[in-house]
């Protein structure tokens, strides 16, 4: 029932959904780092205990402990002892750029493009189906969301894009597409829409959202899909260009060294 | 009543009865809850507070989740803002997808943002499951929709308005049902003499259909259907090319049955 009551909480739920596959400590670390950098977990928020975190993510307690330890070292959480103790998020957004740059350097071009292809498959088909399945009421809800999203800052624009994509996915009426959309947003959302750092890109994003709604109104599924896929492609290409710039910077500052990412922590 | 020539009774009568078999018992429970909430709210000389309301609603809804084959995902009462403030007394079963496949730990209360000043607060009185019953004063079925914020389930929401003293709207009582389970219950009972039967909601969205070409969640597109759904005065009629499809509203549920030849 509470459709749309807890905007933003869906991605939160996805963050604490069970993990599968190998390299779990790294996955736990990545997911929590993203959630913190993305602002899904807020500054000052208490994280679940080691045991609780392990239970929710479906990993061993030692794995959760290891991930929390690295988060502490990276100054993304701090731990308080005592009755009101626990691990608390300490991140005001100041160091986000460094962390995001680290990720840009760590991902290969092939990985980025593949993420783009995967996400296009999900979001593109969702948009295509939405054009066939959205009712007039659905469209006005979507317009309401667009009218009330603020694209003033990179964070706001990224949250707005996340909400918009999720709503479009919901209009596809496919629970699987919605789940996959959520999972991809929780894991890669911060990276995927990094291009929204630039004001011009934010304006462009908003324009594409409006055009997508117009395509849904016109019941033009092919157009809705095409707008979505090209928006994702543009964003991935922006990432690849940004990566190239960072690599060049790395080469000129670190003589002789290759572009391996330097583990930088956010300032406390 | 308009009945297509040649028919003494609408061919979809049996389907409408089957739909009533599935939804009427749920609405009867909602009527009971509405009655009990209203009585607690209307007691002279005693003011009902949130804690007491929550206790009452939890007691009422708990039995809904006992049946392991049941299709109830969530249930409860949602307060009108001028009654208890922004408040959801809403419970979820322990077995839905959001619990991550972990062992069911009974039912859990849905935590929501109830402070209008918070960024993620959402005015629920604008949502269909509130808006429609509040406007019409009658029961309403919302969906099917993917409830991604709550349970990840494909959901139908049944709601009924609750009035104090017969006129003051104090909230809605509701139950979320799983569309999968509704399909299992309903499809075997849909028979209109060999033609395809499709149940749609008031927006023309397919709830279930015996036609393999019609997906649940898709909008049924037939000439004249939009007009028919907007004008609710005809309980039964025919529509489509050559008036080959029969149409019938299902009582007061807001659902309708369309029966006719499946597209070739």
TrEMBL record, chain A:
In Pfam terms, one family for this protein is GntR
Q: Where is the composition biased (Polar residues)?
A: 251-262
Protein name (database record): FadR family transcriptional regulator
MF terms per GO, please? Answer: DNA binding; DNA-binding transcription factor activity
Residue ranges for the region (Disordered) are 249-268
**SUPFAM superfamilies assigned:** GntR ligand-binding domain-like (SSF48008), Winged helix' DNA-binding domain (SSF46785)
Q: Name the InterPro entries on file.
A: GntR_C (IPR011711), TF_FadR/GntR_C (IPR008920), Tscrpt_reg_HTH_GntR (IPR000524), WH-like_DNA-bd_sf (IPR036388), WH_DNA-bd_sf (IPR036390)
Sorted UniProt keywords: DNA-binding, Transcription, Transcription regulation
- Record-linked PROSITE patterns: HTH_GNTR
From TrEMBL, chain B:
The highest taxon in the source lineage is Bacteria
Q: Name one Pfam family in it.
A: MCP-like_PDC_1
Q: What is this protein called?
A: Uncharacterized protein
């Amino acid at each position: 029932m509470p459709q749309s009551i807890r905007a933003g909480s869906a991605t939160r739920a996805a963050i604490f959904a069970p993990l599968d596959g190998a390299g779990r400590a790294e996955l736990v670390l990545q997911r929590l780092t993203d959630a913190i950098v993305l602002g899904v977990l807020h500054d000052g928020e208490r994280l679940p205990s080691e045991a609780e975190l392990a239970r929710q993510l479906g990993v061993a307690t030692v794995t959760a402990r290891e991930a929390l330890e690295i988060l502490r070292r990276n100054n993304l959480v701090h731990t308080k002892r005592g009755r009101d103790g626990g691990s608390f998020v300490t991140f005001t957004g100041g160091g986000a750029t460094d962390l995001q740059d680290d990720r840009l350097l760590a991902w290969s071009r092939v990985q980025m493009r593949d993420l783009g292809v995967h996400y296009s498959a999900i979001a593109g088909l969702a948009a295509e189906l939405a054009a066939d399945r959205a009712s007039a009421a659905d469209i006005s809800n979507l317009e309401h969301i667009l009218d009330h999203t603020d694209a003033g800052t990179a964070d706001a624009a990224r949250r707005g894009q996340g909400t918009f994509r999720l709503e479009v996915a919901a209009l596809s009426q496919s629970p699987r597409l919605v789940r996959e959309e959520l999972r991809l947003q929780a894991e890669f959302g911060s990276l995927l829409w990094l291009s929204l750092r630039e004001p011009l890109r934010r304006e462009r994003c908003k324009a594409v959202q409006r055009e997508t709604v117009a395509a849904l109104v016109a019941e033009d599924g092919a157009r809705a899909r095409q707008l979505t896929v090209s928006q994702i492609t543009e964003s991935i290409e922006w990432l690849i260009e940004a990566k190239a710039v960072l690599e060049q910077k790395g080469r000129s500052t670190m003589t002789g060294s290759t572009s391996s990412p330097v583990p930088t922590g956010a300032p406390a | 009543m308009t009945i297509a020539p040649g028919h003494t009774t609408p061919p979809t009568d049996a389907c409408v009865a089957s739909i009533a078999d599935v939804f009427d018992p749920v609405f009867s429970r909602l009527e009971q809850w509405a009655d009990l909430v209203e009585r607690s709210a209307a007691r002279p000389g005693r003011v009902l507070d949130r804690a007491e309301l929550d206790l009452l609603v939890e007691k009422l809804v708990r039995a809904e989740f006992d049946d392991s084959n049941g299709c109830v995902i969530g249930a409860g009462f949602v307060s009108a803002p001028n009654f208890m403030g922004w408040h959801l007394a809403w419970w979820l079963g322990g077995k839905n997808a959001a619990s991550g496949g972990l062992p069911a730990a009974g039912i859990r209360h849905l935590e929501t943002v109830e402070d209008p000043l918070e960024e993620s607060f959402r005015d629920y009185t604008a949502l269909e499951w509130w808006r429609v019953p509040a406007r019409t004063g009658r029961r309403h079925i919302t969906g099917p929709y993917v409830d991604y914020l709550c349970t990840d389930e494909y959901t139908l929401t049944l709601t009924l308005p609750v009035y104090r003293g017969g006129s003051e709207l104090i909230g809605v009582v509701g139950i979320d049902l799983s569309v999968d389970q509704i399909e299992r219950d309903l499809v075997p009972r849909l028979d209109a003499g060999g033609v395809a039967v499709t149940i749609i909601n008031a927006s023309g969205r397919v709830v279930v259909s015996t036609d393999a070409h019609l997906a649940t969640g898709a909008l049924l597109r037939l000439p004249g259907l939009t007009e028919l759904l907007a004008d609710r005065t005809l309980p039964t009629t025919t529509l489509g090319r050559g008036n080959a499809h029969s149409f019938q509203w299902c009582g007061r549920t807001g659902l309708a049955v369309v029966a006719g030849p499946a597209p070739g």
